[in-house]
Amino acid sequence: MNLMIREIQKSKRAVDRVFPKLRALGVWFVLNLTKAKCIGG
Known about the structure:
Blueprint lengths: L1 H39 L1
């Protein structure tokens, strides 16, 4: 039982580590998209 809880906490920590990177990547992607639109049209 304890092992399962530990595994869940470990995966939560991994998600917390990855999520900001994904969000930053999404923001960067949107910014580049709008920039390309402004330059293109």
